[in-house]
Amino acid sequence: MICAVIVAGGSGSRMKTAVRKQYLSLGGLPIVAHTLMAFDRHPDLDRIVLVVPENDRERCRADVLASLSLGHDVELVAGGRRRQDSVFNGLCAIGVSEGIVMIHDGVRPFVRLSLMNACLAGVADTGGCIPAIPATDTLKQVDGNGVIVGTLNRGQIRLAQTPQTFSLDLIRRAHQMAAERGFAATDDASIAEFAGERVTVVSGDPDNIKITTPADLWIARGILARWREKNPVKPV
Prior knowledge:
The chain is of the alpha/beta class. The chain is 34% helix and 23% strand. The chain has helices at residues 31-40, 57-63, 83-94, 113-126, 168-181, 188-194, 214-230, and strands at 2-7, 25-26, 29-30, 47-52, 74-78, 100-105, 128-134, 139-142, 148-152, 158-160, 164-167, 200-203. Strands 1, 4, 5, 6, 7, 10, 11 and 12 form an eight-stranded mixed sheet that branches.
């Protein structure tokens, strides 16, 4: 079984809008709708779990799902206080113990099928695989006063993206361990690492941006316009 857990539980405070970022319009549809459609196109996907804030489930059904013609049913799950809590809720909702899960940010609408497939292929080696892109800027490490204390070797640095893809039982156990031991992380690869698991990296996609600020939304509009100009169907 191959499942997708799409996490759209954030408050969107950095976007500074009254509407949560996942529901903002991008090309006439909510951002998260583009994300759902991208996964819905995957021919081998069995289930989609969408994690949203507790009070948003009815709104999501009415304002997002009702307007989409998806081949998969979308199971709505209530999110938690933190991202990792929301992911864990989504993982628990899957129920089965065996399979592969792709954990994806709901506000990364430009995920290609080819990137999903690369992650699915990579997970066979270690049980965990994420997409990431090389750092291109010079990276400085600073102290609490903003004073530089070192320069990192950017050749060894990667900027993590999603879908972060794992053996289902592996990542569920890792999340359970993190919850029991009070470990907090901002991505699922960190949780797998905390549990002692090895996670491999495949090449990410510069278009696969996470929309969290007004500037990101402007960039996203440009990416969508370019994709639509080249191909009316999102690239694979």
